[in-house]
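Propose amino acids for all 163 sites.
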């Protein structure tokens, strides 16, 4: 939400001017040199703009190795072909679309249910029906940030993915 507020021109990226204005809007009064230094930290790919993923990744606390490993266990369970990308084909036999309310009432096909499921893990601006390891990890980094203990996070993942 903060990212969208800062993105004055709705380009889905923040340039330096929008970044500085956003910092000022949130009462972060810093000089231009400090702002440039912070901007470079956010701009992971050096493109001169900050996209949504770069913004989130920079703000999130790092995950423990235990959390990363359980996330990868879930990813490997879904990635039936083992090619590092989860697709609709990978989900067949792992995820039962027939229990989804929109499938049951005839609004969606099984493939539409799978596609909606996959789109949950993609960044808001990159919904291509495929989920990479990085996208899956980023999704769970967001979930992880709101869960205090590794034990609780691991139990949640094991229960959610029947690991």
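Proposal:
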């Amino acid at each position: 939400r903060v990212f969208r507020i800062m993105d004055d021109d709705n380009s889905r990226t923040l340039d330096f001017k929008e970044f500085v204005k956003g910092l000022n809007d949130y009462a972060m009064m810093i000089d231009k040199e400090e702002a440039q230094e912070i901007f470079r930290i956010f701009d992971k790919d050096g493109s001169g703009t900050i996209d949504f993923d770069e913004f989130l990744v920079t703000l999130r606390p790092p995950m423990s190795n235990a959390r990363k490993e359980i996330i990868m266990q879930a990813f490997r369970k879904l990635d039936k072909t083992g090619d590092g990308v989860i697709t609709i084909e990978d989900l067949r036999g792992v995820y039962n679309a027939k229990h989804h309310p929109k499938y049951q009432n005839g609004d969606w096909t099984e493939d539409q249910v799978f596609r909606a499921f996959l789109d949950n893990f993609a960044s808001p601006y990159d919904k291509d029906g495929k989920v990479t390891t990085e996208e899956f990890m980023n999704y769970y980094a967001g979930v992880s940030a709101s869960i205090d203990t590794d034990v609780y996070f691991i139990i949640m993942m094991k229960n959610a993915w029947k690991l």
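The longest strand covers residues 13-14. Strands lie at 13-14, 50-51, 85-86, 131-132.
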